[in-house]
Design goal:
The chain is of the alpha/beta class. The chain has eleven helices and 14 strands. The strands form three sheets. A six-stranded mixed beta sheet has the order 6-7-8-3-9-10, with helices on both faces.
């Protein structure tokens, strides 16, 4: 498949501050591409450059072969953007908002009417077409934002944390809508702070921090970065300080954490770990309820790579 987005050495400085530091990434046609990172990582700045809102300091960004600076008008005609916060007119109805967007794109009245009806059906808002959008729930507002972003029939859709603040039902509905749009042929650039959502939804993922892409690949490929940080969960009938102290002395154990009857071990490798731990507890006449390997989650890798410090 061809590249729908191609970024080469993309850099953005604000004075002496390096917001985006020479990133390189290619996104294939038809992908749902996850773009993750803590606050201040450079995600918004990157998206602003890809959507022609900001000029890069250096490097290039191509959308289906068109340069985001030299061919900005052509790029804007090919993309749709779903912002994190509702940016339509709350005093207008759902139908009026889409009509206004259609007029901005220079669409004919009959085309706007047909497109509006079709899109409101797609985002399950047909019954609310004539309701004032400011009275919508968070999930309804986001679905209307998706409809607005689709008025120009974009080939690429940028979705900036679209499920933030939504209830579980609305999050599921929006994820299903995203998958439906992707199956229709739209390439999707998706940012989220929800690691589970990214794991389930995205074909490939980039993790960005301090202006640089520090991990790139499928979710499984990224999780393999923690193969040397395997976690073992042990449930005992009773946990003593003596057992915890003895576990820390084992040569294959990197760290020991305890919460009630549950002990979490970080081990250097999992080779024969069940037999070794069984022998360990048996020799100490310790009753074991369960021992299991915990596979690293995408969130585990994310925290490992970006650290635990809070970001502004």
């Amino acid at each position: 498949m061809k590249n729908m987005i191609e970024v080469k050495s993309l850099t953005k400085k604000f004075g002496s501050f390096m917001a985006v530091n020479g990133i390189n990434v290619q996104i294939k046609e038809g992908e749902i591409f996850g773009f993750l990172g803590p606050n201040g990582a450079g995600k918004t700045t990157t998206i602003s450059m890809l959507t022609t809102l900001l000029k890069p300091t250096s490097g290039t960004a191509l959308i289906d072969g068109y340069d985001c600076i030299k061919d900005a008008a052509q790029v804007r005609s090919m993309i749709g953007v779903v912002p994190q916060t509702f940016s339509l007119f709350p005093e207008l109805t759902a139908e009026e908002n889409l009509w206004y967007i259609g007029k901005l794109y220079g669409m004919k009245d009959f085309s706007i009417k047909e497109k509006t009806s079709s899109l409101l059906k797609t985002v399950v808002l047909s019954e609310h077409a004539k309701r004032i959008s400011g009275a919508f729930s968070g999930g309804m507002k986001q679905r209307l934002s998706v409809a607005a972003s689709l008025m120009s029939s974009p080939r690429i859709l940028f979705m900036d944390e679209p499920t933030t603040g939504l209830d579980p039902q609305s999050r599921v509905a929006l994820r299903e809508l995203t998958q439906q749009l992707n199956k229709s042929g739209i390439t999707i650039f998706y940012t989220t702070h929800d690691m589970e959502e990214a794991d389930k939804l995205c074909d490939r993922i980039a993790i960005m921090d301090k202006g640089a892409i520090i991990a790139l690949g499928t979710s499984d490929e990224i999780k393999r970065k923690l193969e040397d940080h395997n976690s073992i969960e042990i449930e005992l009938e009773e946990v003593s300080n003596f057992i915890l102290s003895e576990l820390k002395k084992l040569p294959f154990v990197a760290s020991v954490e305890n919460s009630g009857r549950i002990i979490n071990l970080k081990v250097k490798n999992t080779s024969n770990v069940f037999f070794k731990l069984s022998d360990f507890f048996s020799a100490r006449k310790q009753k074991v309820v369960e021992i299991k390997i915990k596979e690293p989650s995408l969130e585990d890798v994310f925290i490992h790579l970006t650290k635990k410090e809070l970001r502004e």
